[in-house]
Write a structure and sequence with these properties.
alpha+beta, Pdz3 Domain, eight-stranded antiparallel β-sheet, seven-stranded antiparallel β-sheet, 11 helices, about 15% helix
Length: about 525
């Protein structure tokens, strides 16, 4: 459940076959000129050439042959709409789905349509292993596409096999049959610096062999606030729909990133392109190449960043750690004694920061190892030891998490006394109200019956039908307990309180709410 205000639109940089992603004009595939030679091994250095390069032509000519266009196709069953003439036939003795006299009597057959995508990839070995994004080959039904076609710069086409795919990192490995194919090498993205020149080559809008250049605008850029792979290289090199899966090169021609997404209100490049760093991508690809599943540490917790309001409610500095929103029973975190409301501040001796999230640090620890974790609980620092397990598949995690946000605007919730300090009207949660709000059995708390539109609670996204489970980690079941918790926070000179909020079947979430002046 998210209480954040509307954020910039993040889009995957891939196109849909036959039309632009998110609508637009149709396009056809076109390939660029054939490059002059295969990318060769070169010293791995991120030091830019003295001064701005006069031209990227030699670099582009050397690298283009190893960058490919990827086209996918999938035939899916279309859910048929109700027949508008069904009632007519029923009333007048006909049979819906069966033709009348003199016509064919073949029953209506299930309808299908063909869909697909256009994107990019790059060859990493002379025998035809190709790296791309997983979302390019993920089918609409949760599986994979039916066919994957790789198109070289000389317009030669190959049928590709899917060797492996990894949803968590959004990476996939393909294979075409060939020998002495042009290929490129991995670079060292850990040595990348903001301001370094980079070159992107790909297939934007189906226009193959397109080269763009720019600089690295930011490192470790997070766009979701969660996950081990939410650490992108940001660039102002033009990244558009169809660039997905294509390489980002340093000036030595080594791959330091995989172009995957863009932030844009329109769907077209506004100078904020995002690439998966090679330091994260290369180990995943090598594991897939061995036919194995990537190994990642897993705790079994739901986490939230420690933003300004949550930090203020706990009396902690902003961005110092992440707060535990939920703990899965019998998973490593629960066995180690981590509790809901704990703030995890260090993992394996490293501070938890927006650049080094708990998910990132744990995912990169060895499964089964004993990992020291420091938490702050009720203002006191504690040291625990966790033993990370193997991270479940994304499908298993989705089932474990349940559904997403549930709107409760249609539920009937009685009004109650106002808690003016928070701008909320509250009512004890009864079994009837819980059922009306589709809450899981056993949910306790107070229900929000009204929100002052000028309050901080309204700005943070609270709405009628939300259930406050706890205030400053103390469980509440009456509005009076909420008021008492606010009074205690005021007495301690706190400017905000920490609410644990439940909405429908979505996971609980912490939110810091400013206390209104007296």
């Amino acid at each position: 459940m998210s209480f954040l205000k509307e954020s910039p639109i993040v889009r995957y940089a891939y196109g849909v076959a036959g039309a632009l992603l998110l609508g637009g004009t149709a396009f056809s595939i076109a390939t660029g000129p054939v490059g002059a030679q295969v990318a060769q091994n070169s010293p791995n250095s991120m030091t830019p050439r003295p001064g701005a390069p006069m031209s990227f032509a030699d670099l582009a000519a050397r690298l283009q042959p190893a960058v490919v266009n990827i086209s996918t196709k999938q035939r899916i069953t279309v859910k048929q709409q109700a027949d508008p003439f069904e009632e007519f036939f029923r009333r007048f003795g006909g049979q819906p789905g069966v033709a009348g006299p003199g016509d064919s009597t073949t029953p209506a057959q299930p309808q299908t349509r063909e869909t697909g995508s256009l994107g990019s990839g790059f060859i990493i070995s002379p025998d035809g292993y190709i790296v791309t994004n997983n979302h390019l080959i993920a089918g609409e039904n949760g599986g994979t596409v039916d066919t994957v076609t790789v198109i070289m710069t000389d317009r030669k086409e190959y049928s590709a096999r899917i060797i492996g795919r990894d949803t968590a990192s959004d990476l996939a490995l393909l294979k075409i049959d060939g020998a002495n194919l042009p290929f490129v090498n991995w670079g060292d993205s850990t040595r990348a610096r903001v301001g370094d020149w980079v070159v992107a080559i790909g297939n934007p809008y189906g226009l193959g062999g397109t080269v763009t250049a720019g600089i690295i605008s930011a490192l470790h850029r997070g766009i979701t606030g969660a996950g081990a792979y939410d650490r992108y290289i940001q660039t102002d090199a033009s990244i558009n729909m169809g660039n997905s899966g294509g390489p980002m090169f340093d000036l030595n021609g080594n791959v330091i990133g995989i172009n995957s997404a863009l932030i844009s209100p329109t769907g077209a490049s506004v100078g904020i392109g995002l690439a998966i760093p090679a330091e994260l991508a290369q180990p995943v690809i090598e594991t897939l190449r061995k036919g194995q599943r990537p190994s990642r540490g897993y705790l079994g917790v739901g986490l939230q960043p420690l933003d300004e309001n949550i930090a203020a409610s706990l009396g902690l500095p902003k961005d110092m750690g992440e707060i535990v929103r939920s703990v899965q029973p019998n998973d490593p975190a629960a066995r180690a004694g981590i509790q809901q409301g704990d703030v995890i501040v260090r993992v394996a001796g490293q501070n938890v920061t927006p650049d080094q999230t708990v998910s990132y640090l744990i995912a990169n620890t060895q499964v089964g190892a004993r990992v020291p974790v420091e938490v702050i609980r009720d203002g006191h620092r504690q040291s625990l030891v966790v033993v990370p397990a193997q991270r479940p598949t994304e499908e298993a995690l989705a089932k474990q998490a349940g559904g997403g946000d549930v709107a409760n605007d249609g539920a009937t919730v009685p009004t109650g006394p106002a808690t003016k300090a928070l701008g909320l009207s509250l009512q004890p949660l009864s079994s009837q109200i819980a059922q009306a709000l589709s809450l899981p059995p056993g949910t306790h708390g107070v229900v929000v019956t009204a929100v002052d539109p000028s309050s901080d609670a309204a700005d943070k996204g609270l709405k009628r039908g939300d259930v406050i489970v706890s205030v400053n980690r103390a469980l509440v079941t009456t509005p009076a307990q909420v008021s008492a918790a606010v009074a205690t926070a005021r007495a301690a000179n706190r400017t905000s309180v920490l609410l644990l909020v439940k909405r429908g079947i979505a996971p609980e979430a912490f939110i810091g709410i400013n206390i209104a002046p007296r």
